[in-house]
Amino acid sequence: MDRGPGGPVSDVVHGRLRALLGTSGVERDQAGLPRAIPDSADALSLVCRLAHEEGWKIRVEGQGTWLPPDAPADLAVSTGALDQVVSVSPADLVATVQAGAPIEALRRRLADEGMWLALDPPGRPERSLGSIIATATAGPLRHGFGPVRDHVLGCTVATGDGRLVKAGGRVVKNVAGYDLTKLQVGGFGGFGIIAEAHLRLRALPRADVTLVARGMRDALTSAARDVMAAELVPAALELLSPALAAEADWVLAARFLGTDAAVQGEVRRIAPIGNLAWQPLPADRTAAFWGLVARGSQGGPVTLRLGVLGDGVDDTIDLLAHDLDEGLLSAGAGLGMVRWTGDAPVERLRAVRRAAAAREIPMTLERAPWPVRRALGHFGAYREGVGQIVGRLRDTFDPGQCLQVALEGAGE
Amino acid sequence: MIVSALVEALGRIVGVRWVRHRRAELKTYTMDGLPTRESYPGVVVMPGTASEVREIIRLLHLAGVPFVARGAGTGLSGGAVANADAVLIALTRMNCILDVDPVHRRAVVQPGVVNARLSEAVAPLGLHYVPDPSSQAACTVGGNVAENAGGPHCLKYGVTTNHIVQLEVVLPDGSVVVLGSPHGEPWGPDLVGLFVGSEGMFGIVTRITVRLEPMPASVRTMLADFHSVRAASEAVSSVIAAGIVPAAMEMMDRACVAAVEASIYAAGYPTDAAAVLLVELDGQPDAVEAEARTVETILRAQGARTVRSASTDADRARLWQGRKKAFGAMGRIAPDLAVQDAVVPRSALPDIMDRIAEIRDRHGINISNVFHAGDGNLHPNISFDRRDPDVAARVHVACKEIMAACVEAGGSITGEHGVGSDKLEYMPWIFDAETLGAMRAVRRVFDPAERANPGKVVPIHTCREWTAARGAR
Fold this sequence. Notes:
The complex is a heterodimer of chains A (412) and B (473).
Chain A: H1 8-21, E1 26-28, E2 34-36, H2 41-54, E3 58-61, E4 75-78, E5 85-89, E6 94-98, H3 103-112, E7 115-116, H4 129-135, H5 142-145, E8 152-158, E9 164-168, H6 180-184, E10 193-200, E11 202-203, E12 207-215, H7 217-229, E13 236-240, H8 242-245, E14 250-258, H9 260-270, E15 279-280, H10 283-296, E16 302-306, H11 313-323, E17 328-332, E18 338-342, H12 346-358, E19 363-367, H13 370-376, H14 386-397
Parallel strand pairs in A: 2-4, 3-4
Antiparallel strand pairs in A: 1-2, 5-6, 6-10, 7-11, 8-9, 8-10, 12-14, 12-15, 13-14, 13-17, 16-18, 16-19, 17-18
Chain B: H1 4-14, E1 19-20, H2 23-26, E2 43-45, H3 50-63, E3 67-70, E4 87-90, E5 97-101, E6 106-109, H4 115-122, E7 127-128, H5 141-147, H6 154-157, E8 164-170, E9 176-180, H7 191-195, E10 204-211, E11 213-214, E12 218-226, H8 229-241, E13 248-253, H9 254-261, E14 275-283, H10 285-301, E15 306-310, H11 313-324, H12 326-330, E16 336-339, E17 342-343, H13 349-363, E18 366-372, E19 377-378, E20 380-384, H14 389-408, H15 427-430, H16 433-446
Parallel strand pairs in B: 2-4, 3-4
Antiparallel strand pairs in B: 1-2, 5-6, 6-10, 7-11, 8-9, 8-10, 12-14, 12-15, 13-14, 13-18, 16-20, 17-19, 18-20
Helix pairs in contact in B: 1-3, 8-10, 8-13, 13-14
C-alpha cells in the first residue's frame, strides 16, 4: 500500500489521530503528511502508543528551525502545542517548561523576574527548548556554565511505545535512582520525545561585558591559553572564524558576567593578555553580537561539533579546513569544543569523523538534511562495546523502532 | 552461600592473601556508614589491578554469582553491603593516580584513590578535585562515581557527575567499555552521565578521568549566627537572589553547634544561636572583597547577630572545623548516628526545618541538623542507640516522616548519599511505576542478569514491566 503523504496509509493515520486527539489536534504538513499536535504529555504518549501498535514511523518536530523536518515517516509529531512555560520559581531558581516553548519566550519571561537560563545555543531565538535539550547544543556560555546537561534537572519523556517516563526532579541536587535525564539530553530523540523539562536558572548578573580581539588564528588561540593560565573566569571565550564573525580577521570574544566588581576586575586583567587590542563591545551591541554567533551556525545545511580539548582546537580547525573548509567555525578556545557549519558530501564528513576519532575526539552531527543524517548518523565511530549498549538502550526506549532518528549512520 | 571452589578460584586470580572468607575477617565488611543495615558477604576479594577485576567479573559471570563493589565503605545508604550469596569486591588496593595532566586539568585515577589524596597530590600544581564529601579523608573516587557524591563546595562547582569526563568500566559480563572522552563531550549518548550515580549496578569502574580545577586566587569564609533557623534560611535565598553564587553555604542548627562545641572540634561557634551559617566566597581578591561586603550587608539585613570573617588559611580552617567534624562530634551523643539526606526546594527550607523539629519532638528523639543550605540539601542526623529496639523503631518512623515531608515539599529522598538499600521503600513516593520500570530496564541493558549490587536502588516489585525488543536493531 502507498505509504506516502496523501496516500491511503496516510489517510488511515490521519483518521486515527483525529479520533485520538480531535480535529484540532491533527493537521497535514505541506506535503500532506499527517501531523499530530498533542497538547499534553499524556496525549503525546497516546500518539506514540498508537504509532507503536500500528508500526508507524514518527518524525518529531519542534519549531522547525534547527533539524529540518524531513525524516521520512508515517506521521509527524509536533511539540507546537506544548509550548508553555509551566512555572517559574524565582526563590528556587527553577523553571518548568514544555518542550515546544521557544527559548526566547522563556528568556523574556525570566528577565522580567530577574532570572535567566545560562544557555546561548546556536540557532534562532524561536528554537524550542526540546530541540536544544535533545541535541545538547550549548553555545559559547558552555565555558562558564557547562553543557546543556548541567541545566536540566529532570524531564518527562514519551517513549517510542508510548510510556511516560518522569526522570529526575525539580531540585538542584538529586541522586534518587539512575540519572535517566542524562540519556535524554543529547539523545536526539532516539530514546523518546521530551514533553516537559525542569531547568536550573540563575539570577541575572549585574554586569555583562564582552571584549573582542582580532588577529591571526594562532595568536588568538595562544591568547586564549594565556587567559586560562591566568585563571580568568570568562563566561565565554569563543574563537570565531572570519566568515562567522563577518569580519576580515579571526575574532576572539571574551564575555564576563557577574557582579560589577568581579567583571571590572576581569576586564582589567585580560587587557595585557596576548598583546591584543581587546575592545569592549558597547552594551547595546552585546546581544546582537552573540545573536550573530548563534545564527551563524545556520549558514549552511550541516553543523558538526567536535569534543576537543582546549589546546587541540587549532589542530582540529586545521583538520576541518583540510577535509572540509574553514567556513563558519566557532570554538570554545579555553575549554575546547569546535562547531563547524557548512556543506560537504557524506564521505568527507565520515573521513573527518574517523580522523577525529583517531585523536580521541568524538564528532556529533548536530544538524543536517535527512539523507546526511541517515548515512552518517548523529553519532558514530564508537569505541568497542559502546554501540551495543546504545542499541540495547534504543531497543528499550523504542522497541518498535518508531522514532525516525538516525543515531548511527547506515554506512557505519 | 559461596562454594569453596569459587573462593579458591578467586584466590588464584588475586592471591590467597587478598581473599577473606572467615567470619571474623568479614566483620569489617558487614556495614557501610549506615548503622541500620548489617549483612555478612559470602566472601571478600581485593583485586589490585584492572585485569584482576576483569578476571573476577568474568569468573562470576560464568558462575552466575552476584557481586557488590565497595570502596572505603563510607557510604551512608547501605549500598556497599553484600548478602551471603554475593562476592564483595573491595577496590581499595587500586589506589594509584595514573596520570595528571596540568595543562588540560585532568587526572586519571584508579577507583580506590581516596578523594582527599587526589587533591593533595595535585595541590603543588595549583589544582584540586572539587567534590568534597564530608568523608573525603577516607572515601574513594570510585565510590564517589557510584554515588554521584556531593559536598559543601558543590553549590558553585557541581557534584561528581560534573567532574567526570571518561570512565573505563568492566560490565557485569566481564567485557570492558570506555565511556566518554578526554574532553568530556559524550561519545554518542551521555553514557558517563548515565553511569555516574548508578550505585554499582551497571558495572565496576577501573579507570576514572576527572576534571581538576585551579585553586581559587582568594577565599573568604564568613560565619553568621541567627536567632532563628527561618531567618538563616531566608538569608541563604537572599544571597543567591542577589546573583552571588558562593562556593559553599552551610548551616548548622543549635543541636549541631552544641555537639560541636562540646567536643574537641570546638570551633568557637555561638552556642546560644538558633542557627549558624557558613558562607564561603572565592575568586579574584577584588571581586571576593566586594562580594563579601554585599553578603555581609544581606546577612545583617536578614537578622544575623554577628558576622565573622576569615581569609587566612588558619582562620578559615577554624571556622570550617566544626562543620567538617560535625558528624564526628555527634558520636559523643549516642553510639549510633543515622546521617539522613534529603532535598527540598530552597524556598521550602524554613518550613521543612519546623516540620523536622515537630517530628523530633513527637518521637522524642535527638536530631542535629547540619546541611548544604545553598542547594536545599538537608542532613537531619539522628543520634540513637540501635540496641534499644523501641528507639530504633521510633528512629525508623521519624526518618520516614521526614522523607515524606521533603517529598511533599517538592523535594527528593536523597541529594548525595544515594538510595542503596536504605531508601528503596521511598522510591515509589517520587517515581511512578513506569519510571521505575524504565530504571530497571536501563539497568538490564548493562546487567541483564541483575547480578551487580542486587536488590538496591530500584524496588523491583513496584516496577511496571518493560521488555525490550532484544536485538531488534
